[in-house]
Structure formats: C-alpha cells, structure tokens
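Q: Hi! First time doing this. I have a protein sequence and I read that you can turn it into a structure. Is that right? Here it is:
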Amino acid sequence: MTYLTHPFYTLGLIYLLVLVFRAVLSWFPVGSSGMRSVNHWLYVLTEPVVAPLRRVIPPLGIFDISYMIACLAVYLVTYYVLALIKV
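A: Yes, that's right. Below is the predicted 3D structure, encoded as structure tokens:
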C-alpha cells in the first residue's frame, strides 16, 4: 500500500482542503442561508485547530496566518505519522 492510498493520508488531505476552503470563504460575505450552513460546518470542523494558533500567533495586519500554520501542521503530522508506520 502506498501512502497515496492510505486512509490517514486521505483524511489529512481532506482536512487540508477543508482548511483552505474555510480560508477562501472567509474573504467573501455570507449571504444565503445555504452558504451560512456550509460556513457553520467549516467553522465547527476547523476552529478546534485554528483557535489555539490564533491565540498564540497575532494577525499580520489584515492577514490571519493561523490558517497557513494549521495547514503546515496538518501536512507535517500526516507525513510524520505515515513515516512512522512506514507506508
């Protein structure tokens, strides 16, 4: 089994996509009720990771770099765990 087909890799990739999607959606106003519910679920899924980083890392002007740090952390943890289990 290669790392590309490993379930842990797939979960890490999906979580990275959720983080990026939430970061992109934060640039746009939420108008419709459908987008409000999507935004709520993205918030519920990502806030446990992003909120502690946001407390430690101050924003750089108008830019919140906690999303980038969270993406980097998820990426590194995913590959570190895959290296530990030697996939």
